Structures are given as C-alpha cells and as structure tokens.
C-alpha cells in the first residue's frame, strides 16, 4: 500500500511534573537512540535557542521550559517521534494540545515524590483519549519511597492497573541494581565512583537462581526476593490489550542520570507502544492505512527564527504518504496550501522532508494562514476532532506605552493568539485589547515577547472580567438581542465572533440560566 511507512512509527510524549527528570530522560533517549552523541546536547540546544530570544530569559530564570518541539530518532528499525511538552502548568494548554498528536506517553515520576500535581493533570488528558502510558519511576539512585508505596500510589491516584516490569534492588545508598522481571536480568552499576549503568548485566534463571548470591549483598537479595515475589503476585500481570486501552500501565524503574532503565524503556516503546492509531474525525474516523493524506495542526510557533519572522505550523500526519510539494486543502476555508518546504525535526536540526508517514510531525512554514485545529487533506471534507481548547481564566486589558504602536501591537497579539498561547478580544466598548490566558506566567511572557520581538512596550491593567464564553444561537435574532442587551460585557475575538465576558462564574451561570436558548462555549469551534 502506498501509504505504508518504511519503518514502524512510535509517536509519543513524556508527561511529568517539573524536576522529575524529563529533560534528562529525553537527552538519554536521544543518546541511546543515536540521535545525539554527547549528553548535554539537548540542554545546549535549548540554550542556543534561548540565547536567540530574550523573552526566553523567563524560562531560564524560572528553570522551566516553555517551548516545545519534536525530536526524531531511529533505533532497531523503528522511527521514534518524541514530542516535547513544556513542563510548567501555565503552559498546559499547549501541552494538552501536543498530547492529541501522540499515540502513547511515558509518565516520568520522581521516586521520592510519587505522583505530583502536574503529572496528574497531564495524565487526565491522556485518559480522555485513552492514550496508553508507560511509567518510568526515575531517580532510584537516590533515596526514594518504598516500591510498594509508589506502585499503590500510581494505582490509586490514577485508577490504573499497574504492572511492575522491573524491580529496583534498594534505592539511594542501598541501590545495587535493577532486576528485569520479564527477562530475568540484573542491570548493575559500574564499579567506579559514577555508579552508572554501562552495560554490566547478568542473566539468571529466575529470582531463585543461586548466582544472584554472589552478585548482590545478602540484604539486597533478601529484600529483592521477598518484594519482587510479593509484587508479582499482588499486581496485574502485563496485558498488552489493557495497556493499549489505557487501563494498565507497565512500570519501569531507572535513573535517567545514571543511564539505568533507559534502553529498557526504548525497548518497551518498541515492543508495546502502539503504531499510529486511527484518529477521531468528523464525519468518520481516519485510519493510518488510508492512501490519501490527512493531518491536523496541533501547534503553531511564531518567530522560531527571528531573522525571518517565520511561523511554523506543526502537523501530525494521520494518514497517507506525504510528499514534498503536495497541495493540501485547508478544510473549512476553501484554501489550498502548497507545502514546498516541509520540515522534519531531528534531534539537532531541522531538515527538509521529502516524504513523511502517518505518525510523523512535519513543520509547515507559513505566514499565518494555518491555525491550531486546522485539518489538511487532499480534498476530502474531514475534520479531526478532540483538540482541547481552554476558556481563558485571566482577562487583562492591555495598555500601550506608545500609542503610535497600535498596529505593531495588533500584529503581535495576532501572532501570539495564533500560537494558541493566549486569546485576544476586542471589546464592544472601549479601545484597549483584552487578552485572555490560562495562567499568570503567560502574561509575563507576553510582555517580554512584545518587547523583544516586536519592540512594543506595553503593560496590563486589571479588567472587570474573569472569564469569557463564545456565544451563539440557532436564531440570529436571539443572538443580536443578547448582544444588544449586554454590550458592556461583549467583545469580539480576532475572527469577529461574539464573546461574552463575565465577572465571575456566578454571573456566568446566572446569565446562562437566563438565556437557555443560547450556547455559551468555553472554547471556540473553528470557523
Ligand atoms: P525536568 O524538569 O523534568 O526536565 O527535570 P530535569 O531533567 O531537568 O532534572 C531535574 C533535576 O533532577 C536535575 O538536577 C537532574 O540532574 C536531576 N535528575 C534527573 N534524573 C535524575 C536521576 O535519575 N537521578 C538523580 N539523582 N538525579 C536526577
């Protein structure tokens, strides 16, 4: 079939709470996947990128990552597409959308901290779409919680069956290695001071094998035998169907810093993680085997290269074999986009893609035509669904220091609204734009990007509103009447769609109840 890829694809993301070790693990995955050649390159790359753009100082200062990208590596005949998700909760909107473009996820948990707030939120998004999850309990080289406590917490907090695939022999000062329950292998630290995993391993016949006595301390082995046996009896056995349905998570233990468990994690992705899955769409589901190309835009990033003011739309290819130069229809707009310079994102570089396959992410440079949520096809009227949008929770009036910069401000706001990191509204009364964001940090990023990228000095003023809803009605007259009655609280989004702004949730539900014939949408339907 024309659309089948030369290599199987694994398109996945890592979800975690900040500091759990996502960056370190990403780097090690790329290192073991052969995509980079020295640890530190992911960070170095991040730094080079940061140096180019001043606003990213915020992420440096706060030690967070607000940009996300795609990293592709190949190993043992499989192409892995790792979609990076920004870690800070203020940027969850972007993160959530990225999760719609993956087929599976790796959940990284700090062995000492267990399930944290951000992990849980991201997990919930995965659950909405039944995204299968492999768990990686990181930092076993440090003091952590008891293995049982960790497994129980994952099971209880996330209401998932857990299946330990490996078992650490002690943690922190007592760490002696990791036992692979499926393969009956023991991964051991190097003898030197690093204590890193350098390929030292022993295959045994099982936990009872006497050979283990000469490798592990009596204490370590005793504990391993007792715990691992109890663990295997007490938790679910691995069941690929349950994993694929998002009901069971296999749990791996390791140390990204010391290279433990990283290759096993790649193997797990290769062995169990799904190939590109059928994608929900209207009026029909799209199957990756279809020969006709289709995909959706899940992210737009402006000014990736400040010299060019470019804008890259990230498209997840869902079906068909994409070829460079193809013309794709932007559904709902009547426009056709000729994709002459599609980009593939390798770990270190972007390169022109001559072709791409379902599961791949291609970057499409454009001048603002493509937006988050767009469906592109060879002509069929399809719309991919399930891309979450979030109602803004913080609304602020934006105030220009220099009133002659109105046009620059409008362009800048448009660009950033296109990236999907904020909404912009124009009130029916008054002339100051209102921006809506999901988190406070986005406001700071906004001000700082306005200065750095657009040379616009601006600040925020409190607005009387807290939340916004897109209003629509079956009967245009009803809508007109509502708008006339609520002019002081009405605004238009950048497409001219009417938006009602409420002072608080109480007022919102009051107005909703009084107008049962109108629809108040927390997110906007695309065109
Ligand atoms: P992120 O915020 O999730 O991307 O986390 P990072 O990868 O930046 O890691 C946060 C901190 O934890 C850094 O200081 C890492 O060096 C450290 N770290 C990451 N993985 C491990 C690990 O396996 N063991 C230990 N001891 N530290 C780790």
TrEMBL record:
InterPro entries: EF-G-like_DII (IPR053905), EFG_III/V (IPR035647), G_TR_CS (IPR031157), P-loop_NTPase (IPR027417), PrfC (IPR004548), RF3_C (IPR032090), RF3_dom_3_sf (IPR038467), RF3_GTP-bd (IPR041732). Residues 7-277 form the Tr-type G domain. Coiled coil: none annotated. It holds the Pfam family EF-G_D2. The keyword Methyltransferase does not apply. It comes from the Bacteria. Keywords: Cytoplasm, GTP-binding, Nucleotide-binding, Protein biosynthesis. GTP binds at residues 16-23, 84-88, 138-141. It is found in: Cytoplasm. Belongs to the TRAFAC class translation factor GTPase superfamily. Classic translation factor GTPase family. PrfC subfamily. Increases the formation of ribosomal termination complexes and stimulates activities of RF-1 and RF-2. It binds guanine nucleotides and has strong preference for UGA stop codons. It may interact directly with the ribosome. The stimulation of RF-1 and RF-2 is significantly reduced by GTP and GDP, but not by GMP. This is Peptide chain release factor 3. It comes from Sphingomonas vulcanisoli.
């Amino acid at each position: 079939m024309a659309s089948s890829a030369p290599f199987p694809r694994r398109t996945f993301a890592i979800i975690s709470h900040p500091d759990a070790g996502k960056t370190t693990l990403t780097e090690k995955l790329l290192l073991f996947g052969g995509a980079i050649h020295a640890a530190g390159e992911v960070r170095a790359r991040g730094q080079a990128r940061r140096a180019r753009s001043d606003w990213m100082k915020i992420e440096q200062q706060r030690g967070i990552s607000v940009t996300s990208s795609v990293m592709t590596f190949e190993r043992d005949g499989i192409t892995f597409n790792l979609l990076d998700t920004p870690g800070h909760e203020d940027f969850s909107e972007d993160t959530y959308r990225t999760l719609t473009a993956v087929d599976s996820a790796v959940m990284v948990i700090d062995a000492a901290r267990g399930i944290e707030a951000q992990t849980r939120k991201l997990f919930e998004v995965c659950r909405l779409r039944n995204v299968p999850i492999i768990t990686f309990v990181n930092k076993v080289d440090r003091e952590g919680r008891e293995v049982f406590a960790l497994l129980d917490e994952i099971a209880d907090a996330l209401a998932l069956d857990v299946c330990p695939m490996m078992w650490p022999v002690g943690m922190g000062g007592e760490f002696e290695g990791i036992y692979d329950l499926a393969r009956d292998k023991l991964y051991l630290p190097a003898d030197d001071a690093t204590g890193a995993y350098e390929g030292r391993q022993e295959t045994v016949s099982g936990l009872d094998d006497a050979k283990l006595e000469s490798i592990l301390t009596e204490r370590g082995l005793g504990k391993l035998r007792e715990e691992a046996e109890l663990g295997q009896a007490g938790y679910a056995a691995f069941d690929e169907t349950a994993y694929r349905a998002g009901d069971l998570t296999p749990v791996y233990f390791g140390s990204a810093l010391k290279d433990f468990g990283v290759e096993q994690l790649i193997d797990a992705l290769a062995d169990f993680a799904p190939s590109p899955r059928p994608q929900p769409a209207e009026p029909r589901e799209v199957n990756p085997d279809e020969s006709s190309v289709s995909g959706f835009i899940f992210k737009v990033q402006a000014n990736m290269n400040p010299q060019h003011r470019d804008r890259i739309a990230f498209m997840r290819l869902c079906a068909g074999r994409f070829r460079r130069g193809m013309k794709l229809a932007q559904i709902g707009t009547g426009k056709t986009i000729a994709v002459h310079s599609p980009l593939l994102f390798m770990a270190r570089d972007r390169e022109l893609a001559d072709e791409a396959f379902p599961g791949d992410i291609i970057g499409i440079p454009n001048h603002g035509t493509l937006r988050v949520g767009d469906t592109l096809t060879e002509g069929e009227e399809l719309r991919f669904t399930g891309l979450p949008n979030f109602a803004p929770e913080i609304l602020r009036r934006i105030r220009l220091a220099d009133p002659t910069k109105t046009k620059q401000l409008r362009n800048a706001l448009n660009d950033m609204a296109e990236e999907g990191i904020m909404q912009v509204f124009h009130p029916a009364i008054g002339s100051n734009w209102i921006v809506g964001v999901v988190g406070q940090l986005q406001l700071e990023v906004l001000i700082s990007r306005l200065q750095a990228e657009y040379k616009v000095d601006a600040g925020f003023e409190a607005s009387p509103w807290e939340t916004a809803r897109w209003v629509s009605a079956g009967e245009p007259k009803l809508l007109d009447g509502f708008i006339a009655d609520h002019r002081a609280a009405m605004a238009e989004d950048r497409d001219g769609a009417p938006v009602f702004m409420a002072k608080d949730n109480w007022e919102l539900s009051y107005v909703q109840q009084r107008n049962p014939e109108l629809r108040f949408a927390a997110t906007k339907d695309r065109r």
